[in-house]
Specification:
Elements lengths: L1 H8 L7 H19 L3 H11 L4 E6 L2 E9 L4 E2 L6 E2 L3 H15 L30 H6 L9 H4 L35 H15 L3 H13 L20 E3 L3 E3 L7 H4 L2 E2 L1 H11 L4 E2 L2 E2 L3 H6 L7 H5 L4 E3 L2 E6 L2 E10 L2 E8 L4 E7 L9 H11 L23 E5 L8 H7 L2 E6 L2 E6 L5 E7 L2 E4 L7 E5 L5 E4 L4 E5 L1 H30 L10 H9 L4 H6 L10 H26 L3 H19 L10
Antiparallel strand pairs: 1-2, 1-14, 2-3, 4-7, 5-6, 8-9, 10-11, 11-12, 12-13, 13-14, 15-16, 15-22, 16-17, 17-18, 18-19, 19-20, 20-21, 21-22
Helix pairs in contact: 3-13, 4-7, 15-16, 15-19, 16-18, 18-19
InterPro entries: AmpC-like (IPR050491), Beta-lactam-related (IPR001466), Beta-lactam/transpept-like (IPR012338)
Pfam family, one: Beta-lactamase
GO molecular function: hydrolase activity
Amino acid sequence: MLGLVHHCESHVKTVACLPLLLLLLLLSLAAPLRAAPSVGEAISALLVEEKLDGAVWATLEGEGAAGVSHAGRRTPMRADSRVHVGSIAKTVLAAGVLRLVSQGRLDLDTPVAPLLPALDFDNPWQAHDPVRVRHLLDHTAGLDDARLWHIFSGKADPDAPLAAAFPAGRGVLRVRTRPGARTSYSNMSYTLLGMVIEATVGQRYERYLDRALLAPLGMRDSTFTFVSQARDPRLAMGHFEGGVAHAAMPSYLRPAGQFTTTAGDMVRFARFLMGDGTLAGQSFIAPALLRRMGQGAGQEAARAGLQLGYGLGLRTVDRHGAVARCHGGNGIGFRAMLCLFPVPRQAFFIAINTDSETADYQRFDALLTRALVPAVASPVPPPAPVPRFESGPWLGFYLPAPNRFDTMRLVDSAFGFVRLHGNGGNLVFTPFQRAAIELVHEGGGLFRPRGKLLASHALLTSSDGRRIVTNGTQSYAQVPLPCLVLLWSSLAAGALGLVTIALLAGVRVARRRFAVADPLALPLAGMLALLLPLPFFYAQSLVRLGDLTVASALLAVVTALLPVAMAVGLARSLRRKASMDAAASLAVLQACVVLATGGLLPLQLWR
């Protein structure tokens, strides 16, 4: 190439050399581009590595697809294939609420109870802190996330009133923390927002949002109404591991997770969210509201100075070397992610039609983030000198406050704890059975993990004087270690009691010394009865796990009879002075009492 350049320099006036030089220049520039795999090629490779079926994605520059839309039929995924996006529906629905607020038809501080008088909120703070619209949008209403039957049910009807998700007398709307104080992710909150929309506009939220939100935004391939693969051949099939296909199913909590769209439509939506809130020169959503999406307001974490958190349908995250406003989603056979990068005004959407428990979906997010905003992450600033943090009183064990699923509060108390301990001048945040996070003090009780751009955790004292550690979307309250040890000991003793009963009874059976009158006869029968529901559960679909079926009814009966069997066995053992039998029965009985106190005995999956 250099020889040709010198040749042309000696014949500057020879016009014929110019095209040749341009061609060589283009070829030299194109060579490294061909060497680097495209985003599409990289996503295709990741799908194979993670054993996933297909994906659609889009950025502000274009769209793409890879893999298959139906594993059984090997139908190729197309860029305009429709997909389900799970909880990303919350972001779109939140925009619909903000549209009503911008029109003056609704206010973020409007109390919800007067709008929905048929519902009974159990709110101890009702007099001064009612649940407001903004609390539902920010996940700060203090409500449970969902009940099992909300998610796993074959009885949900896509045309049923939304109030069917909140039956009276079931304690579904119990407010567990002061509204506005603390973030706790709640699908029920966004279902209530669907009801708020309906109460405001006087029609079904699906019909209203399709007409008043999606149509003006140009999202012609999107809808809030229920869409199944049988109804729409463009809708990709959902899958689980191994390419097992599963069609869409209706949900009791449909405003929180029912949305059908395309990658192109989601990029149109992302572009609007990063704009000034106008459409065709007319104000559509107030820009101040759009800027507030992804920002906490009024929560303990936000007041403590954390920038990470949830607000108005988006979550601010610090991942893969960039700060973004994102929302993920997963549903039956789908995983999806929407991320906005206000600086340098980039966005991506990706949906994968496989819901796998083993795949690492963060690899796709990292790939798209680094492809779009390779320079967005300024170098992590060196820690500035800050006053030494007196961590002593904060060290110890913490429990979720509140936990996400109220019916699992006992399980989370036993196994959802985190430990906070020191490491030199830093703190180490260690969730049970998960990787530890070393935190560097930034000042003012804010802590940042090494390699991150923003503080991720804050230590604060709640209004009732409890020590709290929060990451902006989940808070933990300090708990005395003896309380945890007592709970662990109780559950361990119960498990040991079950093993002891099985061993003692087994030895007696082997020696032919076991009779109906044996002190362990009923306890053993109670234990064996726990196996009776298993074949019925095996025969029924997983999606009916939350329904009242033969399997779930039988499970409730045998778990209710277990403590009765142990109590009878204990009485017999005491009469016969069989100390080992009595100790084993008592150990199981006390664990049953603990489980009953935590709402897990009898085990009623449909409640």
